[in-house]
Amino acid sequence: MIFDVVVVGPLGVNCIILGCEQTGEGLVVDPGGDVDKIVARLAEHKLTPVGIINTHGHFDHTGGNGRLMNATGAPLWIHRADSPMLSRVAQVSAMYGIPGENSPDADHFLEDGSELAFGLHRLRVIHTPGHTPGGCCLYVESAQTLISGDTLFADGVGRTDLPGGSHEQLVTSIRTRLFTLPDQVRVWPGHGPSTTIGHEKHHNPYLD
């Protein structure tokens, strides 16, 4: 399986490319910007994306949706609860002094427990509200890898002071949905370095 992390946009989002070497099918998670860089990396891996996934609706994770959809023809997936954010990307990013483009509407909605295939591989959607109402993590069991968006970070958790955020809900999501995964699962958050489920269980200061 191909797993490539491309850091994009002014806020340093971990855009993740997943791919099947046998079939050439791939998925792109959180194309927040620098779409030319993402397209070039897809070409390097000889991948055709069959889907674009937003782990949640914040502008730094969705800002490149439209350009990547135009470049690849791939459909967009997001949780229904976060889909209203897609039409406000430009407005919200401008509040931070960052230019942005509104995203097209989603083609499909992520649902807890649903699976998305890319070639011979699959990922499972885990709904983890708290950072946003529709925040989701993506678990590739065969690779023992979790894409956690802005839910769980290395020694940190997602902020909950933005509209729709809830610290209590976030902690519950992490404890009941993510910490049930095996300790050895590698976690790739929406920003910053990777970690493991086991490390965060025992050392994350926000979950004591």
Q: Order the strands across the largest sheet as they lie in space.
A: 1-2-3-4-5-6
Q: What is the first-to-last residue Cα distance?
A: 35 Å
The total tally of domains equals 1
What is CATH's topology name? Metallo-beta-lactamase, Chain A
Radius of gyration: 16 Å
Oligomeric description of these chains: single chain
Strand content: 25-35%
The second-level CATH architecture is 4-Layer Sandwich
Helix-strand string? EEEHEHHEHEEEEEEEHEEH
Number of helices: 6
Shape: globular
The top level CATH class name: Alpha Beta
Helix content: 10-25%
* Largest sheet data: 6 strands, mixed
Could you give the count of β-strands?
14
Structural class: alpha/beta
Pfam family, one: Lactamase_B
Keywords: Hydrolase, Metal-binding, Zinc
Cofactor: Zn(2+)
Protein name: Beta-lactamase domain protein
Structure report:
With 208 residues, this protein is of the alpha/beta class. It has a single domain (2-207), classed as Ribonuclease Z/Hydroxyacylglutathione hydrolase-like (Metallo-beta-lactamase, Chain A). It has 6 helices and 14 strands. The longest helix has 12 residues, at 167-178. The termini are far apart. The relative contact order is 0.14. The model has no long low-confidence stretch (mean pLDDT 97).
